[in-house]
Design goal:
Length: 118
């Protein structure tokens, strides 16, 4: 698995907690749909894999900017991100966290960081 810095490992731990609590939206189509529909499944922070295509990156950034959702690009691959949220045998380009407290903890770690925001 990925051996990133301490800050990113803590973010992945929070992401794992959110996944076990079923407070994540995994995948770009579901993220876009959740932001458009609103309600309880609106992501409060979006984490994107490093190896997304240019078109996928643009789609994620455009949607999150329109809906005012902070977005961060991690140094994980889409397969590693999928493994973190419990999706076996596939790849997930982006994941949104819908829990207020977990999203706040992730934002506190990343927002003070080294400019990882996209």
């Amino acid at each position: 698995m990925h051996s990133g810095n301490d800050k990113e490992r803590r973010v992945l731990a929070y992401l794992g907690f959110a996944a076990r609590a079923r407070k994540v939206v995994a995948g770009v189509p579901l993220l876009c749909q959740a932001m458009q529909r609103g309600g309880t499944y609106v992501p409060l922070v979006v984490l994107e894999a490093q190896d997304t295509s240019v078109n996928t990156h643009k789609r994620v950034c455009d949607r999150t900017a329109f809906y005012g959702v902070p977005t961060f690009r991690l140094s994980l691959t889409a397969a590693e991100l999928a493994h973190t949220v419990g999706k076996r045998g596939g790849a997930v380009a982006a994941v949104g966290v819908t829990d207020t407290e977990l999203a706040s903890a992730i934002l506190a770690l990343l927002a003070v960081g080294d400019g990882a925001e996209s």
